[in-house]
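queue> pop job 88
queue> type: inverse folding (structure -> sequence)
queue> payload:
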């Protein structure tokens, strides 16, 4: 069997809010409860959210999602209509912009607990078979 990432755990302020937010942003299935976690399935991987104490510090993580052009348009429209911040770079210097790395489109934006979400339409380095952006 090939090795795949099965799940990872994200500490958040409100697990249901964060899980619903991600599912809504990326058109994913509704979140589900599993023990103390609220999970969102992303392909074969589950992002499991868990609440942390209100005073606890959350170290922001970075989660990148490879999506198609149509999904990018829908998600980006949600970012813009919600008035949320977005950036062309992970350092947050290029505010209000998207990037065009490897012939695709990409953008970074924070989730409700401050984790960085990245969406890209072409994997870094391009498609392994050389397929142009929009065809992969």
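queue> result:
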């Amino acid at each position: 069997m090939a090795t795949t990432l099965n799940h990872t755990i994200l500490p958040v302020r409100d697990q249901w809010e964060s899980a619903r937010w991600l599912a809504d942003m990326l058109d994913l299935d509704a979140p589900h409860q599993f023990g103390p976690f609220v999970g969102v399935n992303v392909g074969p991987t589950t992002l499991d959210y868990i609440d942390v104490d209100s005073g606890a510090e959350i170290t922001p993580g970075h989660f990148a999602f490879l999506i198609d052009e149509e999904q990018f348009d829908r998600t980006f429209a949600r970012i813009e209509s919600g008035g949320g911040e977005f950036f062309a770079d992970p350092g947050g210097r290029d505010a209000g912009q998207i990037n065009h790395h490897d012939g695709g489109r990409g953008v970074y934006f924070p989730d409700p607990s401050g984790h960085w979400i990245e969406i890209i339409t072409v994997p870094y380095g391009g498609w392994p078979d050389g397929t142009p952006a929009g065809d992969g």
